[in-house]
C-alpha cells in the first residue's frame, strides 16, 4: 500500500468538543446582537464603515429571524440606511461612500424588514442596478468594474424585491450565469472559476428569481452540495476545506431552492451548528471554539430556521429574510 | 526598538504636514445608528481620507495616507478606487506599486479589492508584466494551494496575454503532484482545455483521463479526482469510454470490500443509472445500482438520505425504461 493510501480516509474535518452547546441558545444570541457595540475590538471589523450597511442587515435580520426585531431602534436604523443613498441611485456602505450592489441589496432588504421600503425610490435604484449590467449579461459590483456572479444575485434580488425585475436584461444575465456552470454541477465567480458553495447559492438563487432553474441539472448540482457535508455534520465550501457555519447557510439554502434539502443529515448538521455557539457571550463562530461574530450568527440562525425550528421565524432560502416580512415578494418555485 | 524611537504621536491630526486639512469625523447620527468601536488611528486616518475625497487632492502625501487606510482596512473599496485615480494622474511608478501590492497580498490573500487593483496595474503595464505575474501567482498558490483569488487571477493573466497551454498544464500538474486532492488545480486544467478549445480533443481528453485514473489509483478516496473524471466524460456519459469502465470495474474487484471508497461506489452507481437510461441490461443495472446505494448508506452514513433518493431514482428509471420497451 502506498503512503498516500494510508491517508486514504483522512478527509479534512473538525472535532466537536464534548462540552459543546447542544441546543439553540436563542436569547443569548439576541443579547449578543443587541449589545455588540459594547464588546470592543473583537468584531469591530465586521461593522467597520466599509461594510456597515451589510452589517446592519446581518444584525437586523438575525433579530427578525429570532422574533426580536422590536429590540432594534427602527427609526434610527432606517434613517441611517436612507442616508447611505447616493445621487447615482445606489447605496454605499456608509454615508459619503460610493455605491455598491452589495450594499444596495442590503439597504433594500433592511428597509423591507422594517416595512419602510416605500421610503426608497424603486425607479432610481433599479436604474442604478441596470447601469451595472455588462454586455455579456454579467454585473459589476460598482464602477471599479469587478465582475462576480455574486453581483448577479444582488442585482436580480434587488430588482425583484422592488418589483422592477423587467428593468434588467434577464436573458443575457442567465446566459452569463450558465457560462459559469461547471462540469461538476457547481458554479464559480466567473466563467472558468472553480465551483464554490457560496457562488452556487448566488447562481441558483438568481436562476430561481429569473424562473430559469430548468437550465441546470438539479441532481448534479445537489449531489455536489450533498458531498459538502463532513462527518462532523458541518458543511464546507469546496472539497477538502474545513466546515464553516456560513457554508451551512449557502449549501442548505441552495439545496432548499433545488428542492433537495433532505440530502443533508439534519441532526448531524444541527449538532455542528449548535456547537459553534458561544455559550457565554452568545453569537455563532465559524467553527467550534472560535470567536463569535454577527455574520456567522445570522447565517447560523438562518440555517437552523430552514430546518423548521419553531422558536424561529421561517426563512426564505433565496433572500435570507423572514417569509413573514417578504409576504407576496416570495418567489414561487416548482420542483 | 526603544520607546524614544517612536514619535510621540503618529496621528495625522498631530502632523504638521497635514495642518492645512480639516478632518471630517463621522457625524453624531452615524455614531448613534450603529455604534462601533474603532481604534484612534483608524478614526484619525479615515477622517483625513474623507476630507481628501472632498478636496479631491492627488499627491504623494495622499498616496501615503491611502496606504495607511489600506493597512487599517484593506477591504475598503473606496480607498482602492481613489488610489487608482491618483496612480493615473500622478504617473506613479507601477513597478513600485506592484511590490507594494505583493506585500499586502501576502498579508491578506483573501481580499477581493487587492486582487482587483493588481489586475488594473498589470493591464496598465501590459505584456512585460506577465512573467512576474505568473511567478507571483505561483508563490501565493504554493503558500495556500486552493487560494481562489490567485487561481482566478492566473486564469485572467493566461487568458488576457495568451500564455502557452503546455507551460500552464505543467504548472497545474506540478500542483496536483504536490496535492492529489487539490480541486483548484483540476479546475484549472479544465479551464485551460476550454480556453484552448481542447474539451472535445481526443488526445487531450485521453491525457486528462489517464491523469485522473493515476491520481485515483494513488488515493481512491479523492472526491476531486472522481469529479474530474466524470466531468471529462460529461458529453457522452460515464459509460462512454470503455477504458474508464474497465478501470473502474477492476478497481472495484481488486479493492477489499472494507477499503472501497464511497466515490468509487457512487461512480459505478452512476454508470448503472446510465445503463438503465440507455436500456442496457436495465433490470440488472437497476439491481446493482440499488445494491451499491445500500452499501453506500452504511459506509457513508452522513449522506444516507441522498443515497435513498438515488435508489428510488434507479427504480423510477427502470420502470420508465420497461414501459418504454412495452410500448414498442
Automatic annotation (TrEMBL), chain B:
BP GO terms, sorted: peptide pheromone maturation
Domain of life: Eukaryota
Molecular-function annotations in GO: CAAX-protein geranylgeranyltransferase activity; protein farnesyltransferase activity
SUPFAM superfamilies xref list: Protein prenylyltransferase
EC number(s) from the headed UniProt entry: 2.5.1.58, 2.5.1.59
One GO CC term, this protein: cytoplasm
Names of the cofactor(s): Mg(2+)
Keyword terms, alphabetized: Magnesium, Prenyltransferase, Repeat, Transferase
EC class name: transferase
Xref: PANTHER family: PROTEIN FARNESYLTRANSFERASE ALPHA SUBUNIT/RAB GERANYLGERANYL TRANSFERASE ALPHA SUBUNIT (PTHR11129), PROTEIN FARNESYLTRANSFERASE_GERANYLGERANYLTRANSFERASE TYPE-1 SUBUNIT ALPHA (PTHR11129:SF1)
Similarity section: Belongs to the protein prenyltransferase subunit alpha family.
The protein's name in its UniProt record: Protein farnesyltransferase/geranylgeranyltransferase type-1 subunit alpha
Amino acid at each position: 500500500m502506498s503512503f498516500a493510501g494510508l491517508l486514504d480516509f483522512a478527509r479534512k474535518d473538525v472535532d466537536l468538543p464534548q462540552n459543546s452547546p447542544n441546543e439553540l441558545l436563542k436569547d443569548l444570541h439576541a443579547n449578543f446582537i443587541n449589545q455588540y457595540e459594547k464588546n470592543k475590538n473583537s468584531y469591530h471589523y465586521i461593522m467597520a464603515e466599509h461594510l456597515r450597511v451589510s452589517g446592519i442587515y446581518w444584525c437586523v435580520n438575525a433579530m427578525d429571524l429570532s422574533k426580536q426585531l422590536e429590540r432594534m431602534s427602527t427609526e434610527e436604523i432606517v434613517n441611517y440606511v436612507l442616508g447611505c443613498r447616493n445621487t447615482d441611485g445606489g447605496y454605499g456602505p456608509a454615508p459619503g461612500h460610493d455605491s455598491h450592489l452589495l450594499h444596495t441589496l442590503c439597504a433594500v432588504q433592511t428597509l423591507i424588514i422594517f416595512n419602510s421600503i416605500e421610503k426608497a425610490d424603486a425607479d432610481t435604484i433599479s436604474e442604478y442596478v441596470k447601469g451595472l449590467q455588462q454586455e455579456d449579461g454579467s454585473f459589476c459590483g460598482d464602477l471599479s468594474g469587478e465582475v462576480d456572479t455574486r453581483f448577479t444575485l444582488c442585482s436580480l434580488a434587488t430588482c425583484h424585491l422592488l418589483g422592477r425585475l423587467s428593468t434588467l436584461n434577464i436573458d443575457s444575465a442567465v446566459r452569463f450565469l450558465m457560462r459559469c456552470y461547471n462540469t461538476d454541477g457547481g458554479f464559480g465567480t466567473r466563467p472558468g472559476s472553480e465551483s464554490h458553495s457560496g457562488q452556487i447559492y448566488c447562481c441558483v438563487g438568481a436562476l430561481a428569481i429569473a424562473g430559469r432553474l430548468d437550465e441546470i441539472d438539479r441532481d448534479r448540482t445537489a449531489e455536489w452540495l450533498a458531498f459538502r457535508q463532513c462527518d462532523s455534520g458541518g458543511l464546507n465550501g469546496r472539497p477538502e476545506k474545513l466546515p464553516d457555519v456560513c457554508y451551512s447557510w449557502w449549501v442548505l439554502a441552495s439545496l432548499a431552492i433545488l428542492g433537495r434539502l433532505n440530502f443533508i443529515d439534519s441532526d448531524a448538521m444541527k449538532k455542528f451548528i449548535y456547537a459553534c455557539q458561544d455559550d457565554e457571550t452568545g453569537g455563532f463562530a465559524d467553527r467550534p471554539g472560535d470567536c463569535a461574530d454577527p455574520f456567522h450568527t445570522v447565517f447560523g440562525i438562518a440555517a437552523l430556521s430552514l430546518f423548521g425550528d419553531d422558536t424561529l421565524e421561517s426563512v426564505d432560502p433565496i433572500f435570507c429574510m423572514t417569509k413573514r416580512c417578504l409576504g407576496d415578494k416570495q418567489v414561487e418555485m416548482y420542483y | 526598538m526603544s520607546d524614544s524611537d517612536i514619535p510621540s504621536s503618529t496621528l495625522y491630526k498631530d502632523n504638521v504636514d497635514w495642518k492645512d486639512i480639516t478632518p471630517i469625523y463621522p457625524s453624531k447620527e452615524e455614531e448613534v445608528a450603529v455604534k462601533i468601536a474603532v481604534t484612534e488611528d483608524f478614526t484619525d486616518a479615515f477622517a483625513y481620507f474623507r476630507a481628501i475625497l472632498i478636496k479631491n487632492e492627488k499627491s504623494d502625501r495622499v498616496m501615503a495616507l491611502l496606504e495607511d487606510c489600506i493597512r487599517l482596512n484593506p477591504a475598503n473599496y473606496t480607498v482602492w478606487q481613489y488610489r487608482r485615480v491618483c496612480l493615473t494622474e500622478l504617473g506613479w511608478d507601477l513597478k513600485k506599486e506592484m511590490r507594494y501590492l505583493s506585500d499586502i497580498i501576502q498579508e491578506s490573500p483573501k481580499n477581493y479589492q487587492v486582487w482587483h487593483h493588481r489586475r488594473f496595474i498589470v493591464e496598465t503595464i501590459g505584456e512585460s508584466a506577465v512573467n512576474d505575474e505568473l511567478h507571483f501567482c505561483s508563490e501565493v498558490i504554493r503558500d495556500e494551494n486552493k487560494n481562489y483569488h490567485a487561481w482566478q487571477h492566473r486564469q485572467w493573466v493566461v487568458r488576457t496575454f495568451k500564455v502557452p497551454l503546455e507551460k500552464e498544464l505543467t504548472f497545474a500538474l506540478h500542483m496536483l503532484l504536490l496535492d492529489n486532492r487539490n480541486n483548484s488545480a483540476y479546475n484549472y486544467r479544465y479551464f485551460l482545455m476550454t480556453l484552448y478549445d481542447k474539451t472535445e480533443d481526443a488526445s487531450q481528453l485521453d491525457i486528462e483521463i489517464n491523469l485522473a485514473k493515476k491520481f485515483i489509483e494513488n488515493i481512491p478516496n479523492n472526491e476531486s479526482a472522481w469529479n474530474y473524471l466524470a466531468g471529462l466524460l460529461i458529453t457522452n456519459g460515464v459509460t462512454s469510454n470503455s477504458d474508464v469502465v474497465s478501470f473502474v470495474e477492476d478497481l472495484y474487484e481488486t479493492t477489499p470490500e472494507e477499503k472501497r471508497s464511497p466515490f468509487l461506489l457512487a461512480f459505478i452507481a452512476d454508470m448503472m443509472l446510465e445503463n438503465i437510461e440507455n436500456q442496457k441490461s436495465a433490470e440488472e443495472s437497476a439491481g446493482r445500482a440499488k445494491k451499491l446505494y445500500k452499501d453506500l448508506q452504511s459506509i457513508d452514513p452522513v449522506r444516507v438520505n441522498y443515497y435513498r433518493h438515488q435508489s428510488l431514482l434507479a427504480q423510477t428509471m427502470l420502470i420508465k425504461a420497461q414501459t418504454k420497451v412495452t410500448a414498442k
